[in-house]
Amino acid sequence: MKTKLTRVLLIPLLMTGISGSAFSDDDEREHGFFNRMWGGGKSADVAMVDNAKYQQECGSCHFAYQPGLLPARSWTKMMSGLDQHFGENAELPAQDVAQLGAYLEANAADRSDYKRSRKIISSLEASDAPLRITEVPYIIRKHRELSPRMLAENPQVVSLSRCQACHTRAETGSYSESEIKIPGFGRWDD
Ligand code: HEC
Ligand code: HEC
User: Fold this and answer.
1) What is the full per-residue pLDDT of the chain (190 aa) written as tens digits?
2) What is the enclosing helix (H) or strand (E) of 187?
3) DSSP letters along 111-176, please?
4) How far is the CA of 172 from the centre of ligand 1 (A)?
5) 164 contacts 156 by C-beta, under 8 angstroms
C-alpha cells in the first residue's frame, strides 16, 4: 500500500522535472502560477525607466528603451556616436551625454537581476555589443512567430523596434505575454 502510493506520487513529480528541464531554454514556466506565488523573479520583465532626463531626451523620437535591454558595452558605444545615430543626428551637450551614459551603464542588462535582462545577457557573447535591441538573439528568438502581416506589412507596427505598438505595458517594463495586443489582430494567444 505504501509503495504504491509513493509510486503514484513520484511519477508525476518526475515528469514535471523532465518537462521543466526540456523547456528550460524558454520562459513559459516563468509565467506560471507557482512561480508568481513563490515570488520567483520580479513582476516586471526589465526595470522601468526612472530618469526624467532620459525619458525626455531618449524618448522624443521613439520609445524610451529601458537600459536593461542592452549590455553596458552597447550603451557606451551608442553614447559615443550620437551624431550618427541610425542615420539621425541625436547629439546632446557633453554634460548630458555623460549623465545619460552613466544612467544607462549603471542600469544596463549586465548590471540588472531582472529576468529578461538576464536572458538578454546570456544570449550574447561577451564580445557582442549590439546597438539594436532587435538584434539581440534572445529578442529575435522571442519574435520569430510573428508574420510579416503582423509586423513589417502592418501599418500600425512597421518595425519590431516599436515595442509599445504590441506590448501594451512596455512603459512599465512589463513584456508579459498576457499583455500583448497586435494592432489589427488582437490579443496574442500562443
Ligand atoms: C533625433 C531622433 C532620435 C533621438 C533623439 C534618439 N534616437 Fe534612438 N533611434 C532613432 C532612430 C531613427 C532609430 C532607428 C529606428 C528604426 O530603425 O526603426 C533609433 C534607434 C535606437 C535604438 C535601437 C532600437 C532597435 O531597433 O532595437 C536604440 C537602443 C536607441 N535608438 C536608443 C536611443 C538613446 C539611448 C537615445 C538618447 C541618448 C536616443 N536613442 C535618442 C532616433 C533617435
Ligand atoms: C508586432 C508586435 C511586437 C513588437 C513590435 C514587439 N514585440 Fe515583443 N513580443 C511580441 C509577441 C507576440 C511575443 C510573444 C512571443 C511568444 O509567444 O513567446 C513577444 C515577446 C516578447 C518578450 C518575451 C516575453 C515573454 O513573456 O516571454 C520580450 C522580452 C519582448 N517581446 C520584448 C520586446 C521588445 C523590447 C520590443 C521592442 C524592441 C518588442 N518586444 C517588440 C510582439 C511584439
Assistant:
1) 444 554 554 444 444 444 443 344 444 444 444 444 444 445 689 999 999 999 999 999 999 999 999 999 999 999 999 999 999 999 999 999 999 999 999 999 999 999 999 999 999 999 999 999 999 999 999 999 999 999 999 999 999 999 999 999 999 999 999 999 999 999 987 6
2) strand 186-187
3) G--SHHHHHHHHTS-TT---S-GGGSHHHHHHTTT--TTTTTT-TTT--TT-HHHHBTTGGGT---
4) 19
5) no
What Rg, from alpha-carbon coordinates, does the chain have? 20
Calculate how far, in angstroms, residue 62's C-alpha sits from the geometric centre of ligand 1. Answer: 6
Minimum-distance ligand 1 atom for the alpha carbon of 132: 27
Enter the DSSP assignment of 81. T
Contact of 14 with 7, CB cutoff 8 Å:
no
Written as nine digits, the cell of 19 is: 518537462
The amino acid sitting at 34 is: F
As a whole number of angstroms, the distance between CA 90 and CA 82 comes to 5
Give the whole-angstrom CA distance, residue 11 versus residue 27: 24
